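Our consortium's second objective concerns turning raw sequence data into structural hypotheses that experimental partners can test. To show how far this objective has progressed, the report includes one record in full. It was chosen at random from the queue rather than selected for favorable results. The single chain below, 308 residues long, was entered without modification.
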Amino acid sequence: MIVSFDIGGSAIKGGIARSETDIVPLARRPTPKQDFADFVATLRAVVAEAGETPDCISFSIAGVVDPDTQALICANIPCIHGRRLAAELEAELGYPVLIANDADCFAMAEAMSGAGRGHRIVFGAILGTGVGGGLVADGRLVNAAGGFAGEWGHGPIIASFAGNPPAAIPAYPCGCGQKGCVDTVGGARGLERLHKTLHDRELSSEEIIGHWLAGDAEAERTIDVMVDLVASPLALTVNITGATIVPVGGGLSNVEPLLARLDMAVRSRILRKFDRPLVVPSECKIEPGLIGAALLGLKFAGERGHAA
């Protein structure tokens, strides 16, 4: 039995997993952001609620584990930021601990239980508030030991001109410290930023999408430019990884006409040609972080038991 967690800035979600098809969510609890002792106590309460001794505890967290130091980079939860969290939680709780990025857990969930089933290489892409991703090969998370694989949203790569006819696109500053990242144009905030640049109008991403679906010309222009900007980096990612399916999660993944348009643009720019959709909506719509963390824990426990 595995206890899995999805740790967010506002809530801690727990679950019990006994197999890939038997994952049961537990009650949510508020995330203690400032006090590590409270954070640990909340986790301990969830483990106690499970009612039996877990083989391991696995976590999906909106942060990145530094592969060299094993320190967690998680700015939105100060009490765990900078800690060697896996080692500290193992000492506090007394069980083996696995920690993975939430986008990596999403990719794992889709590879094993979602749209990626039957594919050797799955690239899970996030188009939410920003842009993220994770890579699974042969059922294994590439970032199992931590790291930045799959972070296609960052790096100075966006084109200086995009759309038809081409519009000039600034190298927007990114929260990662670089300029011109896909994250600055590809998620909901990026869509809003592009609309402001192109039309000098501030609209929410929901309003832009709504106007586009209703046939608005300005919104159509914004979508055209966004898809052009995002398709090339995603096509490059597909070429490099060899992914044969790209499940997409995050808020924008719910706009299926947008994904269909992005899919056509990506397939026209990759080396391998597919006669089927490549960029597709995710299938794990409910708690993908919790599911992915559980799958990682189950795989770890199974391999550990086999080795013993």
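The partners drew two points from this record. Residues 115-281 form a domain with the Nucleotidyltransferase; domain 5 fold (CATH 3.30.420.40). Residues 209 and 255 are 8 Å apart (CA to CA). Both points have been shared with the crystallography group to help prioritize constructs.
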